Amino acid sequence: MTGRLASTAQATPAQAPVLEVKDLHHSYDGKREALQGVSFTIRRGEVFGLLGKNGAGKSTLIKVMTTLLRPTQGSLRVLGMDPARDGQRIRRRIGVVQQGESFDFTTVQGNLDIYGILWGIPKEERERRRDALIQRFGLEDLRKRRSFDLSGGQKRRVQVAREFMHDMDILFLDEPTVGLDVIMRRSLLDSIRGEVSRGLTVVFTTHNLEEADYLCDRIAVIDGGKILVLDSLENLKRLYGGKRTMEITLGAGDAPGYFQALKTRLGPTDSLTVEDRSGILLTDEPKHALSLLVELSQKQAIQIEWLNIRKNTLEDVFLHSVEPGGQTHADP
Amino acid sequence: MPIPNLLRLIYRNTRVNTDPGSLIILLGLPALYLVFFGFGFQSLAGAAAGGKSYLAYLTPGIMAFQAVMAGTVGGSMLWADRRYGMLAQLLVGPFTRLQYLLGIMFTSVLFGLGGAVVMLALASLLVGAGTVTLIGAGVMLGTIALGSIFFGSLMLLVSALVKSNNAYNSIQILVIFVVNFASTVFYPLSSGLPLAIQVLFHLNPLTYVADAVRGAYFSQLTPTEGWQVLVLAGETVVVLYLAIRAYMRSDVSME
């Protein structure tokens, strides 16, 4: 299954960018700006994660990169080609698992088979791949079932399995693990890792930070059509991993006044998110912050009802990035 | 030798749309018209059918009707592919939008011609084999193919513009009903009909398809059918243009 994959992948030299995105904009109907100046490059064999809330612009970005939508501004090169001129050539070398369902009205086996035919895979090879994928994705019992009769997770498995019927250089996965159980999710991520080790480049959108942590080499946090954080997982952990997250809940008293006073005394790299009587403080000086919290509590005569201090996680990076006024850090 | 994209799309469209349920609608409905109307109105319609048996009169009409059925299948293909995500999936694959559209058009023509041949075979069992000339067969097939493109384009236009499932189904049923019964498929155009209905008959492209197929079936082609086919070709170009325009501008999915 990987023979042609390797041969097509070799057409793009190792470490050469397979995706170059520069100041990319896209607006729907000229009004709603879904992408606002996105820039990054992705190298061959890399797993690139796009994290973001619903409506952040992840799927629009995937649609633009897979030639389904045209950028309204900026430049894009996929495998060294311009999608405006070479859309069909690009599409022959990419695979896309879209966020929504996409099936033909036939059985699981029929869907894989038809997909292989559409991609021009010769009969013997097609049948071999189909059977191997049915086995690999645990679809043996569902083989003769109609795709529309399957559960959400089963459908997702078929959709991902089907994409491996053809060879590709870049695989775009738009939230591929939604609805999958833990075992199937891990199995899918391992399958993708296996393909990556053979030269496949993967662009992957997800809400699930554990998945991103498990699979991605680099991560971009996107919100409001802009990239807020972009770096390797190692760098992100180094940058933010030393920080601590302090979660605080106040008792009766002037909570807004307390948090206002706290904000004015925080260091330049600290950040505070407040909701009602609770706050989340991200700091790299937890001792100083702790004494500050206690001092202000005494000064403002307000009790700290609950306080939790923990190591920073990728989830914190994500949450603080997408909060208004949150941190930005981009290294495209 | 690699199979061209268009042929792969036609294969996929044919395979996906020939499940038993689709075939019952595509072939079963016209076949039931032929059998029940053919035998049922035999005694009533003898005179109106110009001395021919009504079943024989109805046969070319039902063959022409296959163009409408094929058109609705074409429209439904685009509708279902947009609704169930396959259009977007195919368009991030190795196909262009135009290839996808041509795939639907050619599949519609195949369905129209295939259905007409099945109706002809069924009629041969019921009324005996007729003698269709080679030119007559060519006119029949060509007109039904043209009619399939016309009605395929019309339904593609509808499916590109309409966003609700209920609206699409209602329009489809309305089109089938009006086009079918305001044409010469079941009965000839008579001066006894109300003027408005006569005008509707003349405006209805299925009348041209039915008249040409009937003329060819009974080896009674006249210049009138020739003009009708020319008008049909002109109408087809216009509707096809509108369908392509609407389709190219439409969203690929209904998210």
Explain what this protein looks like in three dimensions.
The complex is a heterodimer of chains A (332) and B (255). By secondary structure, chain A is an alpha/beta fold. Chain A folds into two domains: 3-232, Rossmann fold (3-Layer(aba) Sandwich), CATH 3.40.50; 243-311, Alpha-Beta Plaits, CATH 3.30.70.100. Chain A is 38% helix and 27% strand. Chain A has a seven-stranded mixed beta sheet with strand order 5-6-7-3-8-9-14, sandwiched between helices. In chain A, a hairpin with a 2-residue loop joins strand 8 (218-223) and strand 9 (226-232). Chain A is elongated and about 80 Å long. The model of chain A is unreliable at 1-10 (pLDDT under 50). Chain B has helices at 5-16, 20-40, 42-45, 54-83, 86-91, 97-127, 134-161, 165-181, 195-203, 205-217, 223-249. Chain B is an all-alpha fold and 255 residues long. Chain B is 78% helix and 0% strand. Chain B is globular and about 55 Å long. Chain B has one domain. Chain B contains eleven helices and no strands. The mean pLDDT of chain B is 89. In chain B, 45% of the residues are buried. At the A-B interface, helix 3 and helix 4 of A face helix 1 and helix 5 of B.
Distance between the termini of chain A: 32 Å
How much helicity do the residues of chain B have? over 70%
Whole-number count of domains of chain B = 1
Spans of chain B of at least 5 consecutive residues whose pLDDT stays below 50 are: none
Query: Low-confidence runs of chain A (pLDDT<50, min 5 residues)?
Result: 1-10
- Distance between the first and last residues' Cα of chain B: 38 Å
What is the N-to-C order of secondary-structure elements of chain A (H for helix, E for strand)? HEEEHEHEHHHEHEHEEHEHEEHEHE
Largest sheet of chain A: 7 strands, mixed
Secondary-structure-based class of chain B equals mainly alpha
CATH architecture classification name of the largest domain in chain A: 3-Layer(aba) Sandwich
How helical, in percent, are the residues of chain A? 25-40%
The strand line-up of the biggest sheet of chain A is: 5-6-7-3-8-9-14
Q: Oligomeric status of the shown chains?
A: heterodimer
Mean pLDDT of chain A: 85
List SSEs of chain B in N-to-C order: HHHHHHHHHHH
Q: Helix count of chain B, per DSSP? A: 11
